[in-house]
Task: inverse folding
């Protein structure tokens, strides 16, 4: 598939990953956004499946949530003293 | 926007607390040594710990309020005033935290229960050195009672099908002890008119912080049979509390940006906190809430990248693994 990926699909994937607004618009105005990017029917099907396909939800949530720790989660608890 | 150094509590204030704790623990022999072990084994946030760690508002607010009420005037109160207030506040916190950990099984040294009670007495004595009034004594007792009762209420809600919106006031109530230091400063300077807005600030920050903690502890809580607020929202009502996270929670996180929606809710509480602090006005408190919001936004951005990559690129990889005829 990676060999067959169209430049339009590559563009929309890049934008949706980096810009939450694009991703949200894809969820709410799918047809409008995909036509702005000039996606063909095959690419549209791919995107729809990617965002809604149940098979995508077999993710191990532990791994996913552990990743959140790495991004600097806000934590206001405090027991031990800081070492200045 | 206000600017904050990464560590908001001064090294001197931190050393003072640590020195007092070490001195207090020394007088309690082996049990005191176990207390120090417990404190030093606890995760530290900020430098050397989690990059998103932020100093707790309840150790900062008393100092900000004192500066505000003094208005640059000569310090009339005895010098150890703020040091006593922070130490007393920390003792109350440690008393509650110890019992919470004993209840959860995170601390299995039973003598810590007695040590915790000693800390509570130390807090009462220390506060009394600075604010010895019947009103404050009542406030002190009520705050401890409110926090302990709310803790049990939250536990029951989480273990009985899930804690939805009704749990949020309990989150604020559970943090009642964290108002004591600030209340003591207001009473000592006879500025109790400030307390409603300060309490509002504390309540909103406490709710925001607890929702963030719930997201952070999502997996641990669900696996131990607790449907915390975040889990209940993601699970749309709270169902099976056992075993691995089910599909609907994964869908809520990945497809529907459920954690993003929770982050929006956290932000609403932070905005309420900012509004309360701005009305006082207490600029450091406003900047503090802004700082937490900035951290939250950075988290949200990273979450989006992780989520979008997982859905979009994950799908791409899955398709690439399929035989060409099936694509």
Result:
């Amino acid at each position: 598939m990676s060999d067959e990926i169209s430049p339009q699909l590559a563009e929309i994937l890049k934008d949706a990953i980096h810009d939450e607004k694009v991703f949200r618009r894809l969820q709410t105005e799918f047809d409008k956004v995909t036509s702005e990017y000039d996606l063909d029917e095959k690419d549209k099907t791919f995107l729809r499946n990617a965002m809604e396909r149940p098979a995508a939800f077999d993710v191990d949530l532990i791994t996913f949530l552990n990743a959140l720790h790495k991004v600097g989660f806000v934590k206001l608890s405090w027991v031990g003293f800081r070492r200045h | 926007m206000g600017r904050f150094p990464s560590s908001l509590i001064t090294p001197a204030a931190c050393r003072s607390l640590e020195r007092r704790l070490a001195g207090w623990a020394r007088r309690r022999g082996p049990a005191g040594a176990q207390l120090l072990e417990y404190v030093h084994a606890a995760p530290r946030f900020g430098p050397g710990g989690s990059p998103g760690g932020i100093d707790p508002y309840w150790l900062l607010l008393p100092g900000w309020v004192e500066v505000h009420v003094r208005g640059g005037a000569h310090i009339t109160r005895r010098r150890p005033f703020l040091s006593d207030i922070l130490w007393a506040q920390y003792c109350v916190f440690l008393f509650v935290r110890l019992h919470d950990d004993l209840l959860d099984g995170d601390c299995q040294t039973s003598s810590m229960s007695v040590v915790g009670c000693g800390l509570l007495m130390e807090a009462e004595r220390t506060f009394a050195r600075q604010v010895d009034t019947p009103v404050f004594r009542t406030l002190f007792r009520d705050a401890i009672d409110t926090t302990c009762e709310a803790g049990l209420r939250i536990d029951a809600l989480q273990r009985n099908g899930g804690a939805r919106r009704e749990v949020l006031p309990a989150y604020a109530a559970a943090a009642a002890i964290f108002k004591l230091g600030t209340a003591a400063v207001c009473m000592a300077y006879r500025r109790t008119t400030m307390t409603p807005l300060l309490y509002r600030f504390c309540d909103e920050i406490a709710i925001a912080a607890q929702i963030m903690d719930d997201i952070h502890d999502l997996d641990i809580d669900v696996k131990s049979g607790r449907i915390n607020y975040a889990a209940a929202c993601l699970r749309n009502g709270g169902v099976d509390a056992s075993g691995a996270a089910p599909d609907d929670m994964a869908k809520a996180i990945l497809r529907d940006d459920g954690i993003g929606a929770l982050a929006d809710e956290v932000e609403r509480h932070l905005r309420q906190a900012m509004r309360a602090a701005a009305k006082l006005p207490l600029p450091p408190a406003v900047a503090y809430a802004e700082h937490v919001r900035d951290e939250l936004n950075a988290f949200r951005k990273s979450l989006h990248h992780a989520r979008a990559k997982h859905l979009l690129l994950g799908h791409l990889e899955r398709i690439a693994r399929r035989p060409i005829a099936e694509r």
